[in-house]
Amino acid sequence: EKQNSSRVFLTGFGSRGVAALAVMPLTVVKTRIEAGDRSFGGTYKTLLGIYEHNSVKGLYRGVLPTVLRDAPASGVYLLLYSKFLDAALAVPGIDQAPRAVVNFVSGIAAGAVATVVTNPPDVVRTRMQLQFLAVRPTMSKGAVGGVKGGGNALEVAADIIKRNGVWALFTRGLAPRVIKKSMQAALTWTVYHEVSGFITKRSQISAVQVALDEKKMLAKQTSGL
């Protein structure tokens, strides 16, 4: 069923924006641990350590670029996914191909485009959340060395452009992110469609069975009169 484009975009935008805000503290912890910071310990201790040293502000470090990355990415993804899927289903003979394959390919294409478009906020977010590396001496072996930048999102973006050029915002970490995000989104929506279709089919079968049972009961009651 085709849906209004703006509604599809806003649905993805709003839902992902709320989700990004909800899990932001865990995103900060994940980024620091992946960068090699084990100064606080595991996930829970790192969460508490950040809160004790920087309060709630530390747990939401980089929240603006995170929301600017996740919310538009989901909005663009859902919009493009629906468009690509509609276009694919309009191709003559496409009904001969497995629907799961069509969904997956549409998801890969939409995920790749959405990821490329929203890569700059992701680069800024990562740089902001790793600024602590420039000043924290207690790092695990193999950790990424000092990452510098400004304070807020705009200052960090400006510093990246000054040091590495504007294309750094669009190319840093792009390849692995495209692979991860597009595969992740494609698998998610393919599985969603398959499970949703299975449940719907089972519900329809159950409804038909209930109707048949009721008809049989009614027939027995009528014959007994």
What does the model show?
Helices cover 75% and strands 0% of the residues. It has helices spanning 5-22, 24-34, 43-59, 63-89, 99-117, 119-129, 153-164, 168-171, 174-223. Helix 1 (5-22) packs antiparallel against helix 4 (63-89) and helix 4 (63-89) runs antiparallel to helix 5. The longest helix is centred in the C-terminal third of the chain and has 50 residues, at 174-223. Residues 135-150 have low confidence and may be disordered.
Strand content: under 5%
SSE order in H/E notation?
HHHHHHHHH
Mean model confidence by pLDDT: 79
- The portion of residues assigned to helices is over 70%
Number of strands: 0
What's a quick, concise take on this entry?
This protein has helices spanning 5-22, 24-34, 43-59, 63-89, 99-117, 119-129, 153-164, 168-171, 174-223. With 225 residues, it is mainly α. The longest helix is centred in the C-terminal third of the chain and has 50 residues, at 174-223.
Task: Please describe the structure with a list of short key phrases separated by commas or semicolons.
225 residues, mainly alpha
Write the layout of secondary structure elements.
Layout: H1 5-22, H2 24-34, H3 43-59, H4 63-89, H5 99-117, H6 119-129, H7 153-164, H8 168-171, H9 174-223
Helix pairs in contact: 1-4, 2-3, 4-5, 4-6, 5-9, 6-7
